[in-house]
Design brief:
There is one protein chain. With about 190 residues, the chain is α+β, with helices and mostly antiparallel strands. Helices cover about 30% and strands about 25% of the residues. The protein has one domain (about 10-185): Glutaredoxin (3-Layer(aba) Sandwich). It has helices spanning about 45-50, 65-75, 95-105, 120-125, 165-185; strands spanning about 10, 15-20, 35, 40-45, 55-60, 85-90, 110-115, 130, 135, 140, 150-155. A 5-stranded mixed β-sheet has the order 7-6-5-10-11. Strands 1-2 form a two-stranded antiparallel sheet. β10 and β11 form a beta hairpin. It is globular and about 55 Å long.
């Protein structure tokens, strides 16, 4: 990883919490991770998203106003995305809470994954807040080779990431791939 080791802070109300995991930078390889589905079955990120552009929406908790708003906003943006995108929302909530949330809210557009068991995503991507066993809010976009092309860590869980910029970064990759395919056809 190219990024410096830092201990970024995140605000919870008036309290500051420190993230103890190293953050990723643009160009780093986004590590594979294992989480749980709402059915409490294993979810393998690389396997599930193979060959697709990946967008990961990290939320603190579905039981917070900020987390709820972030899920709703993300799911409004995702239908605008192409079929080539693999969209995941992840939190450290229990799979049972995710199941309850999914059945009561309109949660279409992205797959909802729990990172509660090992904080595998949170630790590998720099979103883990160890002392609370929560994830910080943010967004990550990976290309088909799992390179980070956009990443945004939020200092406050009540502030929603810039989904429009994240989607634009992903769409730029699709556009470049399309141009490459057209050039290949024209010059073969």
């Amino acid at each position: 990883m190219k990024g410096k080791i830092s201990k970024p802070k995140m605000k919870f109300g008036k309290n500051e919490k420190i993230s103890h995991s190293q953050r990723l930078d643009i160009g780093d390889t986004g590590p594979d991770f294992i989480g749980l589905t709402k059915e409490v079955t294993a979810f393998e990120f690389y396997k599930e998203g193979k060959g697709k552009l990946k967008i990961i929406n990290s939320i603190t908790s579905i039981d917070t106003n900020g987390g709820l708003r972030q899920v709703v906003n993300f799911n409004e943006i995702i239908p605008k995305a192409k079929d080539d995108f693999f969209a995941v929302t992840i939190s450290a909530d229990l799979p049972f809470a995710i199941e309850r949330f999914s059945s009561s809210e309109s949660v279409s557009g992205s797959l909802f994954i729990s990172d509660y068991r090992h904080l595998d995503f949170g630790r590998n991507y720099g979103f883990a807040i160890e002392d609370t066993r929560l994830l910080s809010s943010g967004i990550v976009v990976l290309d088909r080779e799992n390179k980070v092309i956009f990443i945004q860590y939020m200092k406050n869980p009540d502030i929603t990431p810039d989904f429009e910029r994240a989607l634009a970064a992903a769409e730029r990759i699709l556009y470049d791939e399309t141009l490459f395919e057209v050039d290949k056809l024209l010059y073969e």
